Amino acid sequence: MADIINLQNYIIESKQKSSFTPWKKRFEEDLGLFSGLSDISDKLLYLLAKPDNDSVEALRELVMAVSGKGPITKFPFITDQEKVMVNNIAVYLQEQVYFEMMSRLGWIADYACQRYSLVVLVENFGNQNEVCGRAMPVLSQSDPEFADYIKFPPNLQKKYLEERFV
Question: Engineered SS bond to 64: which of 39, 69, 152, 159, CB 3.0-4.6 Å?
Fold first, then answer.
């Protein structure tokens, strides 16, 4: 009798392999479907936070892989509309990388997308952008300016954080 394949495990393993194989080759770091920004190494976080073409290309590579659009080498051949979407998601991910870096440095206590995996952030970009993209991180209580910040009304807290971090 043939072996029974657990379809759910097969789907998870297949999605994980197709999504993170390019990054495993590029960064030699094992990540999975449930890996979030808090799960990546400091070294990789630093590389992704650099304001250069390599970091943007790496994020595009992840978006292309998770979206099933193929390897990054196919980027020039996808439609203009798909390129815009891939770029928008990559920029959004880079913003989340900055928030994760600030969190590790102790500058912020929390940010909205911290609890989501990279795959979820890519696959649900439209929905997550409404939930995470507009929510500003929470300033850390250890910040020297926290006592003044906490006295501001919410709209001024947001403005303060935008001016300080964005």
Answer: 69
- The predicted model scores a pTM of 0.81
Mean of per-residue pLDDT scores for the chain: 83
Beta strands in 17-163 (DSSP E): 108-110, 138-139
Q: Helix or strand or coil: residue 53?
A: helix
DSSP state of 137: P
Residues 70-99: tens digit of each pLDDT: 888 888 888 899 999 999 999 999 989 999
Which residues lie across from 138 on neighbouring strands? 110
Burial of 119 (0-12, 13-18, 19+ CB in 10 A): buried
**Cβ count within 10 A of residue 53:** 9
Alpha carbon distance 95, 154 (integer Å): 21
* Dihedral of alpha carbons 142, 145, 147, 152, sign: negative
Residue type, 158: K
Task: Check: CB of residue 103 under 8 Å from CB of residue 95.
Answer: no
Q: Give dist(CA 71, CA 69) in Å, integer.
A: 7
pLDDT at residue 14 greater than cutoff 80: no
